[in-house]
Amino acid sequence: MTELATLYAHHIAERQRTTAEALEATGHGALVISSGKVYTHFADDQDAPFHPTPHFAHWCPLPGPHHLLVVQPGHRPRLIRYAPEDFWYEQAPLGDPFWAAAFEVEEAGSVEEAWSRLGALGNAAYIGNETDRACEAGLDLNPDLLTAHLNWHRTAKSDYEVCCIDEATVIAARGHKAARAAFLAGATELEIHHAYVVAAGIVDHEMPYGSIVALNEKGATLHYEGKRTSVRNGAVLLIDAGAQVRGYASDITRTLVAPHCDSRFAALVAGMERIELELCDLVKPALPYGDLHHQGHLRIAALLQESGLLKVGPEEAVEKGLSRPFFPHGLGHHLGIQVHDVAGRQGAPDGTPTPPPPQHPFLRTTRTIDEGQVFTVEPGLYFIPMLLRPFRENEHKGAFDWALIDALTPCGGIRIEDNLLVTATGHRNLTRPHLPD
Ligand code: GLY
Ligand code: MN
User: Fold this and answer.
1) Ligand 1 atom at shortest distance from the alpha carbon of 376
2) What is the CA radius of gyration of the chain?
3) Which single residue of 172, 174, 233, 241 could bond 250 by disulfide (Cβ 3.0 to 4.6 Å)?
4) Is pLDDT above 80 for 1?
């Protein structure tokens, strides 16, 4: 067995254990998960790029729609592989993938055949988007409680999953290095994006999310999607881009400055690099992620004071909410099959919600940090006119240096993002070994 196959065997053993536990807790006898059906654009015959049901991907890296997985405690899982004859789209043969030994593999030439192969299953739940067929088959459709249990277990990554994220990091790091070189050579956003995908060896729809390639002021739009061809020789590049391996994502952001960038903004970027590394250093089990987020605000507020953007100290700034217009998003999120992975706001396997505090509505994880979690640490500092505007007139207006804010607004923003695995005593930074700066 290869090392990957061994890791995968352990991953599947853990899936068997946690799924049996979840089914027991919800009173179901079996679980059917489909890889899902494609989404066809309205009034069109074109499909969106296919994303498998994440719960299916958690078990099996087989790409494509309509496969069915049947999990029954005490039995080897069944994989009914949808394998039609087709002259429109390529249907690659299964071959001999490292993961196939985990399943009783059957093949079905049509969707109807796949579902008819299910047979009688006592009290089975279904997860996926082929709900009409699942309803006909008498399955319990996407039950919330079972989904919550399965989501909860998805936050503890197996060594196999970490290996996938590691590989996705190696690919993304290649892209980031090429993007940096293109930026320093004066490239446009589109050219920088192309440099990234060429070096990564991927096409756009293989990315886990649309790349954010923002020159100058566009860095202040958190999920900027444009790819301008009209701007060259940017002073600042904010690039947020990842890669995907066997369904698992990396999610990496860097902010780079060109030699002609305003030195006051370049100093903020250097300060944020230091803050991001300090925050990563704090990551260890038992720390509430919300406390790490708070530490992020305190440190960013200190940087704002050092630079003269704010005229009050960090404690006062955070208490009065003055760091929030500069850093409006959460410090990070779980990472896995989904870029913003599940169960970050879940307090227990049964789905008990743990919402973010009202002053930090965009915080995506309120969990206590625990061994096996993989999440991002991505502090930011932006000049976002719509968020700063109310402060120009309110009781806090004297706490800001508005001339300096106006001078730096064309530089956009800063975000620096690494992916961390929590270990028994601390963490492993998955990103820095491949992309040190
Ligand atoms: N990579 C984009 C985000 O984390 O929201
Ligand atoms: Mn992220």
Assistant:
1) 4
2) 24
3) 172
4) no
Q: How far is the CA of 349 from the centre of ligand 1 (A)?
A: 25
Closest atom of ligand 1 to CA, residue 329? 5
Instruction: Tell me, using a 6 A CB cutoff, whether residue 98 lines ligand 1.
Output: no
Please state the rounded mean pLDDT for residues 84-93. 94
DSSP reduced 3-state for 37: coil
* Type of residue numbered 98: F
- Tell how strand 418-422 and strand 374-377 pair up: antiparallel
Q: What is the pTM of this model?
A: 0.97
Verify whether ligand 1 is closer than 6 Å to residue 417 (CB atom).
Answer: no
The CATH number that domain 2-154 falls under is 3.40.350.10
Query: Using the 8-state DSSP alphabet, how is residue 92 labeled?
Result: -
Residues 6+ apart with CB under 8 A from 124: 28, 29, 30, 31, 32, 139, 140
For Cα atoms 224, 226, 232, give the angle at the middle one, nearest 5 degrees.
110
Q: How far apart are CA 15 and CA 18, in angstroms?
A: 5
pLDDT in tens, 222-267: 999 999 999 999 999 999 999 999 999 999 999 999 999 999 999 9
Q: Ligand 2 centroid vs 253 CA: distance in angstroms?
A: 8
| 405 within 8 A of 224, measured Cβ to Cβ | no
Residues 161, 11 contacting (CB under 8 angstroms): yes
- For the chain, give every domain's residue range: 2-154, 159-429
Beta bridge mates, 31 = 71, 125
CA of 45 to the centre of ligand 1 (A): 30
Instruction: For domain 159-429, say whether CATH 3.90.230.10 is its number.
Output: yes
Q: Cα(93)–Cα(29) distance, rounded to whole angstroms?
A: 32
